[in-house]
Amino acid sequence: MNVKGNPTRTIWPGPDGTSVEIIDQTVLPHRYEIAVLRTLDDAAHAIRAMLVRGAPLIGATAAWGVWLAMQNDASDAALTRAYDTLFATRPTAVNLRWALDRARTRLSPLPESERATAARALAIEVCDEDVGINHAIGQAGLALIRDIAAQKPAGQPVNILTHCNAGWLATVDWGTATSPIYQAHDAGIAVHVWVDETRPRNQGFNLTAWELLNHGVPHTVIVDNAGGHLMQHGQVDLCIVGTDRTTATGDVCNKIGTYLKALAAHDNGVPFYVALPSPTIDWTVRDGVAEIPIEERSGDEVTHIAGLGPDGTVTTIQIPPTGSPAANPAFDVTPARLVTGLITERGVCPASAAGLKNLFPDQSI
């Protein structure tokens, strides 16, 4: 996608041949900076501290992290250490485990002398696959937007509400929830996006809005609690969100607040779709509420907020009174019964075991 008119990915091999470069998402939208990862610990920090975030990008970064580790020590012990170090960074996104399992399976049978080269090839493969998957998700979702556009009065845009950032910044390129939006916009279909702020880290304000602005997609930022009101007044045609883990039965785990949007959409008859690449499906889990681990992040993310001050500097301030404790569950689970459909690289299906099985007959459920 575009940054200041330049096609850009979120992660790429550094020009020195030994490092990896990423967009530091912690300083967006007010600064655009590139961070360089040179070691396994750098990659782990990038995931844990959310310099990169979003399930697909976390998986891609983990793959590159294994390559960084193998350059210095390609022993079995080092491979195990790389796996364990990266796996411990974030508990919810299943792509992390998927990428690490794939790396371990690919590298373990190889002699140590071949592991670094194979790890680099695998990381490139994971990234290119992600781009292809997300483009295909966009094609599947584009048909939904096109159908709604055909029913709208001439000149009126399709109004789409999204939550958090399931854009290209959460993947390697295109995004999941945003891929249909970008493809509709590029095809000349009038679209307008309602962008939730997504407290407490404000990924909607900081990332989704920045993405859409750079690509020229019409959008409006709103507070998290405005979505239900907009739906009640007919100002939302459909919701499209992403997911960090989807169960074999169609439950979806996404950024905290997604469940409330789904409830509002269900109450107002607004279609609620979830866009996901197949590596995000956890075929071992059937009950999302009971089985998916929910990351509990620092309360400081709730009590403090960063923004651009009048002097042009980014400042962090405290909001609630000193001494008030804060809870910070990072995700919630939306039951399949509230999901209109799942948008995957293989097409759109009902959020159910049967729907997923129909698209992915090769998987045992």
TrEMBL record:
Keyword vocabulary terms for this entry: Amino-acid biosynthesis, Isomerase, Methionine biosynthesis
Alphabetical list of PANTHER family matching this protein: METHYLTHIORIBOSE-1-PHOSPHATE ISOMERASE
Gene behind the chain: mtnA
Catalytic activity, reaction form: 5-(methylsulfanyl)-alpha-D-ribose 1-phosphate = 5-(methylsulfanyl)-D-ribulose 1-phosphate
Residues annotated as signal peptide: none
EC number(s) per entry: 5.3.1.23
Native source species: Synoicihabitans lomoniglobus
Alphabetical GO biological process terms: L-methionine salvage from methylthioadenosine
Protein name (record): Methylthioribose-1-phosphate isomerase
Functional pathway: Amino-acid biosynthesis; L-methionine biosynthesis via salvage pathway; L-methionine from S-methyl-5-thio-alpha-D-ribose 1-phosphate: step 1/6
SUPFAM superfamilies: NagB/RpiA/CoA transferase-like (SSF100950)
Family statement drawn from the similarity comment of this UniProt entry: Belongs to the EIF-2B alpha/beta/delta subunits family. MtnA subfamily.
Keyword flag Amino-acid biosynthesis: yes
Example GO molecular function: S-methyl-5-thioribose-1-phosphate isomerase activity
Amino-acid positions noted as binding substrate in the UniProt annotation, renumbered to this chain: R53, G54, A55, R90, Q203, N254, K255
UniProt-annotated site: Transition state stabilizer, residues: C164
Protein task: Catalyzes the interconversion of methylthioribose-1-phosphate (MTR-1-P) into methylthioribulose-1-phosphate (MTRu-1-P).
Record: active site: D244
Record bears the keyword Ubl conjugation: no
